Every structure is written in C-alpha cells, then in structure tokens.
Amino acid sequence: MKKRNLAWMMAIAMAAVSAAGCSGPGGSTTTETTKAATSETTAAAGETAPAAPAEFSYPMAAGEKLQYWCELTTTVSANFSNLGDTPFGQGWQKNTGAEIEFLHPPTGQMKEQFSLILADGNLPDLMEYNWTVDYPGGPEKAIKDGVIIPLNDVFAQYCPNITQYLAENPEIDRMIKTDEGHYYVFPFIRGDENLMNTIGLMVRQDWLEELNMEVPTTMDEWHEVLTAFKNEKGCTAPYSFEYTNGQYLGADPFVAAYGVNRSFYLGSDNKVHFGATEPGFKEYLTTMNQWYSEGLIDPDLATLKSDQISAKITNGQAGASMGQAGSRMGTWTTAARSTTPEFKLVPAPVPTLEKGGQAEMGYIENPFSGRASVAITTSCKDIERAARLMDWAYGEEGHMYFNFGIEGESYTMVDNYPTYTEQILNNPDGLPVSQAMSAYIRGNYNGPFVQDIRYLEQYYTMEEQRLTPGVWGQCNGAAHTMPPITPTSDESKEFSTIMNEINTYRDEMILKFIFGTESVDNFDTYVKNIENMGLERALEIQNAALERYNSR
Known about the structure:
Layout: H1 2-13, H2 40-45, E1 66-69, H3 74-77, H4 87-96, E2 100-103, H5 110-120, E3 126-129, H6 138-144, H7 152-158, H8 160-168, H9 170-175, E4 189-190, E5 199-204, H10 205-210, H11 219-233, H12 246-250, H13 253-256, E6 264-266, E7 272-274, H14 279-293, H15 306-314, E8 320-324, H16 325-336, E9 345-348, E10 373-376, H17 383-391, H18 396-404, E11 411-414, E12 417-420, H19 422-425, H20 433-440, E13 450-451, H21 453-459, H22 463-466, H23 468-472, H24 489-515, H25 523-532, H26 535-550
Parallel strand pairs: 1-2, 1-3, 4-13
Antiparallel strand pairs: 3-10, 5-8, 5-9, 6-7, 11-12
C-alpha cells in the first residue's frame, strides 16, 4: 500500500498542468431507493440511472476498490503512515464491505497536491476537502468544471441515512447545498453547540500561581503576564502558536479583542464586513508589533509548525498558546508532566480592552464549515458503492463507529452510555488520549459524519479541559460567524481572483507590520491598496450570496 501510494503521488507530481478532464461515472445495479431518482446526477455523467431494487444491507458484496484521498491528521500520523493501517480504517472497510485505498498528501501540502491532482485529471473516487472554501470558484464551480458530481440523485437513490438526517435537520440541509440547490458533499457536522468552540487561548496556571497573577482577561493583563513570563521565567517565546495553521489564524482571540477578524464576518447590520481593513485591525497590529518588539511573541512566528509549538510549550520556552483543548492542551500537558509534574495549562477567555467586559467577537464554528467533507469525483466508476460507503456513517451503526470505534475494544456500553475503555483513556502503549482515539475513531478530529458530544465529554479527561467550552464561549462570536454561503460559479471565479490577490497581500503585510519591517503608520496605504484590488466588489459578491443563502 505504501509503495503504491508513493508511486501514485510521484505520477501526479510529474503531470503536466492542464484543465481537469473527467470521465463519466458509472452506476452499480444493487441499490435501494428512498425516492424516485431524477436524471440530474446521471445526466452530468452522461448516462441513465439504472432501476433500483428494493433491498440493501451492509456489508456490500465484493466490488471494485475505491480510492479515498484525505489529509492524515497529526494524531494519526504520529503512529500510522496510512489511515488504512489503523483499526478505524480496517473496521470501516469490514463493516461496509468496501475495499478502500487511502491516499494522503504530504503533511502541509494538501492544497498543492490537490492542484496537481486536478491538473492530472485522473481523480480519486472520493476526495475529502473543504470544497466550500478552498476550491477556486466554490462547489458549484467544481460541479460545472466536471470535477465532482451533484449528489441530489445520489442521496435519493443510495443514501437513506443522510436523507433522513437532513429531513430532520433543515438548518443543516440549507447549509450543505449551493444556491442552485445542489448537494455536493457528505458533510462533517458538529452535532452539539459545545463542539463548535473547541479552540482558544491557554496559559500556564502553575506559573501564574508562582508569580501571584490571575488568568488574564484584558489585553493589558496579557501584556503583564507575558512580560512576567519573559523576565521571571526566562521564556524566549512567551506567546507561541501555530501561525502557519490557517484555522488558528481565523480563530485568533487577540484580533477578536478589537472587534474584528482578519477576514469576512457578519456585522451587527447583517451585512458582510472585511475585518483586515477596519480601524480595530490597526489597533491589533499596533499591539502585536509592540509585543513582538518586546520579545513577548515567538520570534519564529512566521514558520512555526505544531511539533515546534509542542516542544516550546512543554520545555518552558513558551508559557501561553492557542489551540484545541484535546490535541493541544491535553497532549502537551500529558507530555510535560513526565518531567514537570506541576505543569498545568488552563483556558483563558477572548480578551477585552476593558476589565469586566465581554468580547463581541470570537471564534465559534458553524455546525457545517465545509472542512473535511467528501465529494464523489467524476472519475468514480461505481457511484453507488462510493455513496453506500459514505452513507453508512450517518446511520446509527456508522455514527457509533465513527465516534466511539469498536464495541468491546475501544468502548463499552455502560448504562446505555458509550464509554471509552482503558485502550483509549489509559493506553497500554502510553499513547496520549488524542492519539489512542485517532487510531479507532474520527470523532476527535473531523470527517464525513455527525460528531457526538459524548465523545468530548470523555475526551476531556482533565478538569481544565472541561472548563474550555464555557471559558472560550464567553463572547458573542456566534452572531458574527459567516454562514457557509456559496456564490454562483461566475461570482466565485471573480471573487477568487480578487481575494487571491488581496489575501496574499494582506498576509504579507500583516507579518511586516508585526515584525516592524513596515510601519503601522502606513496602515491607511495598506487599506487603500486592498480597496484598489477590488474589495468593494468582493463585498458585493459576499452580500449577494448572503441574501440568497437567507432566502433558501
């Protein structure tokens, strides 16, 4: 498997860049139907849908192997080179009867490898990606480009589980289709509000107690704490976080303190705004530049990766960071306590400018954000098989499997509650809970399924982790979170062209402002340059898409 995967990636890398060409997908005949199929999906494929027999059950009969392309999360890659080597991957195939060849882009190169695959045109059957945000032109463009197929008829013919789920959850149903009415992915859904604010600030509580300081709640208090960490604890990087992680950039609580973010957000006027050009963003940059010049921010900020952050937090070079309560706070604490038993990270709220206030902005995800959702590509020759594989996760058996794993091995039922075993919570090989979980489930990261809050209730084994939803949720961020709007194909193409230039320039200038190679006094010039790149038109497109979304 490993050699075959490597050879495949080498072939992709050598492919000449061209428009993505696609062959028409075929359909298998062993199907069940929940409603009469129309011709939309099969017309896109250039053929007619077969008649649907009445019965179907798992596991499926043997058939053609499916290629499944997805990123391998760090909590898996720490112990496995391929998802198919994990108990989760092996059990998924056994339970559904589908043989899967998992294909993974090199770490940190997902978007680059995605572009190479499109250029090659020989697509994997299933691709896990953020089609809502990261495909140039958006999901409707991906359909019109002949890269992925619309799933309306696929859901109707082959997917009773997700069809039922969407019927019972109309707000989610609205989120996972385009304005033209096309379903396009098997989505990752956060099934509870407390699963939507799992990223935030964290700080060394043991150091705060030693220094007789409280958890900081304002920007001034943060300055005092980080200064003390530098001067009293000898930190070389008092505040350090994974700047190269786009999700973390979008969740930055220090930006939120100034009532903006670095991209688009929903204003109190119910219109779309672009935070990176607003006055509050200048205040944020001024503060970050001051902190950086004082040595309070990691000097390696621009290039930091997760393993570097982990090392700095656990060895005392850094005393504060941001990230998830599980894979960051929990993993770091477990690692650090092997040598520093008193090590303790606790959550800190989104800071405010005035003491006692509540932040208006803050990072809270939608139930569906587009992340880690799976599309069927136009290269897929057995659409039914691919659809049946994916639909399994939205039924009761698949839901339990994706969130809790193998009954009797990774969990048992205790008083009708799926309870993780010692294999997960006290792993005999010494794996952190996050890594032990990721071997058996996808519940503790993401994927094409509905995430269950009962996983989180056990994943957070430490009291400080269990505090995070309440602490990080102390903001009005949900009111400003953009819904998963989908501009039209033409709008998306124009929007992508505009925003590629704006985002590249914005990202370059932010680092220059923070590092001091560009004076924050030039912020107005920076704003003017972004406006000249077409920001007004981009906002028009976003607001038009928002109006259509609200009318769905």
